[in-house]
Amino acid sequence: MIEVKAIEPTRGNLRDFVAFGNSLYKDNACYVPPLMMDDINTLSPKKNPAFDHCQAQCFMAYRDGQPVGRIAGIINPIVNGRTGSADLRFGFVDFIDDAEVVDALFKAVSDWGRSKGMTSIVGPMGFSDMDHEGMLTFGYDEMGTMATIYNHPYYVDHMERMGFKKDAGWVEYYIKVPEQIPEKYQRIADIVKRRENLKIKKYSSRKKIKEEYGVALFELINRAYDKLYGYSPLTPRQIDYYIDMYLSIINLDLVTVVTDADDKLIAIGISIQSFTEALRKSGGKLFPFGWRHLLKALRGKADAVDLLLVAVAPEYQNKGVNALLFTDLIPYYNKYGFKHAETNLELEDNTAVQSQWSYFDHRLHRRRATFRKPL
């Protein structure tokens, strides 16, 4: 018999909720555990400013007292108001390959959503685009990243069995870091810089970049991503939250700021050295010794770099500004010994973004999707 329990968001309960995913994949060679502290904070009303406007409820399924699945229901009224929908988002979902378990989990979260007036369910998604989203549908034998979800192939089978239909899709690319910037790519960057009168800025002070462009950075993200699928504009409190979160771990050499002639921010590219191996060695835990692996990754060298975030102001999109960002970043990739880059998620119909990779040795190595059905 399956018992599903609504989880009160205490720190201990959320720790058990987050830990279930790690235990399910402990023997999987491609799974990269999230930093548990980050996931716990994301699901905590006391920590995550998304709870200023969102509601959420976590559920865990048990058989004979042992956890066999988990899921979180999330209601984001800002997005629902923008889209005119009544969507219940589901996320943080993991389960054993058992229809009884899966059905019980989705029944519990669906019942909760209906009680709040929701009429459809879609996911996996988080509170905002800063959270993990998209179920893996291709690339199960590829190593994951800290910014993406890993799941078994049977997840998709269960979604289809329950009547869910694909709602949106993403692609991810594996790109070989070139030793030299391709000549044509460099030429594009030079032309757009001169034509648009743009400037590249680099920083060595976290305090200075925060003071000059911290808030502007996330305001730019809100503008650049506004029309993207399911986007939830970040509030001032969320912006402050993410500034503190990301500025503490990024290598400023891997941050490129582009401004216009008046120093107004018009584009930013943020990369981060891969934490894949460090997270695997630490199991996603900081204590007692996980912090050593993460600190080593932060200070040391890695073969891979994650293209964490690229944002270009709408009025400058499709003008070649991305080339300006990456012609600045590629020499730093070589400086730090990165052999390949991971693009992370790109909407599969965003051909403008994907076309830029044609200048490099690249391959599509993962696909993922969200799934939807009426409640």
List key phrases describing it.
375 residues; 12 helices; alpha+beta; 14 strands; 36% helix; globular
Topology:
Layout: E1 2-7, H1 11-24, H2 36-42, E2 55-63, E3 66-75, H3 77-83, E4 87-95, H4 99-115, E5 120-123, E6 135-138, H5 154-161, E7 165-176, H6 183-196, E8 199-201, H7 206-224, H8 236-247, E9 255-259, E10 265-273, H9 276-282, H10 290-299, E11 304-312, H11 321-335, E12 340-342, E13 346-347, H12 351-354, E14 362-374
Parallel strand pairs: 4-5, 11-12
Antiparallel strand pairs: 1-2, 2-3, 3-4, 5-14, 6-14, 7-12, 7-13, 7-14, 8-9, 9-10, 10-11
Helix pairs in contact: 1-2, 6-11, 7-8, 9-10
How many strands? 14
How are helices and strands ordered from N to C? EHHEEHEHEEHEHEHHEEHHEHEEHE
Structural class: alpha+beta
The pLDDT mean sits at 92
Output the number of helix runs: 12
Poorly predicted parts: none
Q: Summarize the biggest pleated sheet.
A: 14 strands, mixed
What is the multimeric organization of the chains shown? single chain
The portion of residues assigned to helices is: 25-40%
Question: In whole angstroms, how far apart are the ends?
Answer: 24 Å
β-strand amount: 25-35%
